């Protein structure tokens, strides 16, 4: 990875990946994932990115980021943390750092959930305007 887009404090890593893909000029998302993770079979997930150690080692300045900080500020896990036992929270964090994501949703309890994922991401237009104005 030659460059890294600025990571905003409350921005999902998925958004950072999307901006990297756009700025890199890559046409194929698999090419982008290969540049980010060193593997074209890695799949970007919206809320719970995994294998973060590999991702961090590929950053142009790998020591400037802490994996725990990325999980807290740039993933969806903090929104689930109040509703899951501490032991499971620690397991999920470990999966995000070292895992490949195959059992993440099962451990989270989402596989049997009646809560369905949206097909597309949504954004708040006034929030985008506020972020654009303030940054």
Account of the protein in words:
The protein is mainly α and 135 residues long. The protein has one domain. It is built from eight helices and no strands. Helix 1 packs across helix 2. The two termini are 25 Å apart. The model has no long low-confidence stretch (mean pLDDT 86).
Give keywords.
TniQ, TniQ domain-containing protein, 135 residues
How many helices? 8
Number of domains: 1
What is the β-strand count?
A: 0
**How is the biggest beta sheet arranged?**
none
Portion in helices: 40-55%
Share of β-strand residues = under 5%
Our measurement of the CA-to-CA distance between the termini, rounded to an integer number of angstroms, reads 25 Å
Query: What ranges have pLDDT less than 50 throughout 5 or more consecutive residues?
Result: none
What is the structural class? Answer: mainly alpha
* Overall mean confidence score, pLDDT: 86
Spatial shape: globular
* H/E element sequence: HHHHHHHH
CA radius of gyration: 15 Å
